[in-house]
């Protein structure tokens, strides 16, 4: 059996007979850290859960909004969604909508986030305007 493949796109099986495609799996904990760093300025508290998870395809993020509401968020390839209403809590019976971005999710949960994000955007635009003149 002949299989045509490129070395950088595949690896040879242990038997060396055919090529198998490499599947790139994102480490969701690294993705979660990036999410936290992006929006930490606009929430009261936010961090990647150390006690939940364990699999590389899911990560949990604890967030407290500026209004004082606490959530546990799940991050997967499907997006972000609320899975609990306390830090490190996953309610299996809760079925909430997935959001493609953390911005979209927080925008629906927190007017304080929306205001902080808008203010940060305005400040940045003002700095760009001042630097451009």
Automatic annotation (TrEMBL):
Residues 28-128 form the GSKIP domain. Transmembrane segments: none annotated. GO terms for molecular function: kinase regulator activity; protein kinase A binding. GO terms for cellular component: cytoplasm. One of its GO terms (biological process) is regulation of canonical Wnt signaling pathway. It comes from the Eukaryota. Coiled coil: none annotated. PANTHER family: GSK3B-INTERACTING PROTEIN. Belongs to the GSKIP family. This is GSKIP domain-containing protein.
């Amino acid at each position: 059996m002949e299989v045509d493949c490129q070395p950088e796109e595949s690896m040879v099986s242990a038997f060396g007979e055919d090529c198998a495609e490499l599947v790139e799996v994102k480490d969701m904990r690294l993705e979660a850290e990036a999410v936290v760093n992006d929006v930490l300025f606009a929430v009261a508290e936010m961090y990647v859960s150390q006690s939940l998870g364990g699999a590389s395809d899911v990560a949990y993020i604890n967030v407290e909004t500026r209004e004082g509401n606490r959530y546990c968020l799940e991050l997967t390839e499907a997006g972000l969604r609320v899975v609990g209403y306390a830090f490190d809590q996953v309610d299996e019976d809760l079925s909430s909508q997935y959001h493609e971005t953390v911005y979209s999710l927080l925008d629906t949960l927190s007017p304080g986030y929306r205001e902080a994000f808008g203010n940060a955007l305005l400040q940045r635009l003002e700095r760009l305007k001042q630097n451009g003149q």
